[in-house]
Amino acid sequence: MAENTVPQPLYKKYLEGGGEMGELIRTFDWSATVLGTPDTWPQSLLLTLSTMLKSRFPMFLFWGKEYIQFYNDAYRPSLGATGKHPTALGGRGEDSWQEIWPIMTPQLERAMRGESTYSENELVPMFRDGKIDDVYWTYSYCPVITEDGTSGGALVICHETTSSVKALKTVDDTITKLQFAIEAAELGTWDLDPATNKFVGNKRTAEWFGLPHTPDIPLNNAIEAIAPEDRERVGNSIMDAMKPGADGNYDISYTIVSQQTGQRRIVRAKGKVIFDAEGTATRFSGTLQDVTDDVEMEKRKDEFISVASHELKTPITSLNASLQILQKLVKDEPVSDKFKMFTAKAGNNLNKLVHLLDDLLNVTKIQQGQLALSKNRFNLTELVKDSCDHISQGNDHEITVTGEDELFVYADYRRIDQVLVNFIGNAIKYSPQSRKIDVVLERSGDDAKVIVKDYGIGINPEKLPHLFDRYYRVDALGHQFSGLGLGLYISSDIIKRHDGNIGVDSQWGEGSQFWFTLPID
């Protein structure tokens, strides 16, 4: 028996277990190799094999000058379904790993000199499943010390990280593409930590605010770059977005003044708050868009509309007066039916033009803060009934009014009637296949609520958030409707000036329900 070998049958204890690879090692014909039969193996080899076979972590052992190979069940899947397994067992390392032997040799030689190596997420291509695969590993070569104090082999403790590395590369590629898109769109990005009030922005955001591009910027420093007239509004919007129970959406435009150059810039900030299970804001991130040019263009458009509206008002008023005289003459004078028909059509079209002009003038007043209110106390129910009776006389729709008989409010009678007429007009316009409209009056806490419900085409959910925007028009389900897209914008401003709320509930293809509230007097 060779010196330092384990007596028979004790050596078999070291090779017990190990699953598939344990069975293969026990039944392998080792007498045909330079190692000889297991009963002649040194205890250091048997002990290392025992540890390796019982481990659930991938391990590979090279032993002796020929680098004879062993591996465990945990390593087995990395060899693939076809290729090196099971021929690698008991074979020479150089024969099994020809494709990467130049990479492995220096590390094996270091281990045989008693040194260890470590590599993380290293690309080590290997032949498996009929092809060369790009495989990534985190591994360590360490020496196995024999009974005489020298290194008898190299134990490779390893973990294949191919999927993780590829996932990280995918993330990196996605981040690169996202950064490219952000740069192409000329957007600033920002991130706020609600717990610390630390504000982080990309380079563009820092430049716009005139702040140093550092990892963390105190929120107060960022707020100081906001124009004084907008600071309170921005601060309130941030707090509202982070309130427990809020939807977390943040969308606001404001002016910033660079703390370095003094340049003024109007930006639109859009963001989203993330809440934890307890409803506490944990993250607040978003983008900044420079809308200075858009705002200036909007101002010039508003100025043009204002001038054009006032210039058109005088001739249209004169034309309306002349047409009214003509309509009176038609009633009294003997004229042809065609003349009467065309006079009536001209009157209807002129009324539409007058309504459009009134909308444009109202928008101008809203933009200039000059939309005056003349408030008095009245019964909202009576206003609704009178308005519905008047509208019913000119169309085929059946308008039903139900609910409270008395709801007294302190408001501008004419402006509230304007809102109601707009709601009912839209209900008629957007329900061409239905003739039923329901108007409901109810108490909602300390408010009076008016609901106008139609049974028409409904509104696409994607368009609901924009309905009360200026110049926004809804064309849905193939229908095209006339109008400037100003009625709901004006109605929204009127209701808000009365400290009320306005909104809409709709199912696409199933009708809409517009509503507004006013404080009960």
TrEMBL record:
Database matches in InterPro entries: BphY/WalK/GraS-like (IPR050351), HATPase_C_sf (IPR036890), HATPase_dom (IPR003594), His_kinase_dom (IPR005467), HisK_dim/P_dom (IPR003661), HisK_dim/P_sf (IPR036097), PAS-assoc_C (IPR000700), PAS-like_dom_sf (IPR035965)
- All copies of the Histidine kinase domain together span 307-521
Provide one Gene Ontology cellular component. plasma membrane
Q: Does the keyword Transmembrane helix apply?
A: no
Q: Which catalysed reactions does the entry list for this protein?
A: ATP + protein L-histidine = ADP + protein N-phospho-L-histidine
Please identify the protein, giving its name as recorded: histidine kinase
PROSITE patterns, per this entry?
A: HIS_KIN, PAC
Annotated EC: 2.7.13.3
Q: Which GO terms describe its biological process?
A: cellular response to phosphate starvation
Q: Which CDD domains match?
A: HATPase, HisKA
Keyword set includes Transferase: yes
Q: Which residues form the PAC domain?
A: 250-303
Recorded superkingdom: Bacteria
Gene Ontology terms for molecular function: phosphoprotein phosphatase activity; phosphorelay sensor kinase activity
Q: Which organism is it from?
A: Mucilaginibacter conchicola
Keyword terms: Kinase, Phosphoprotein, Transferase, Two-component regulatory system
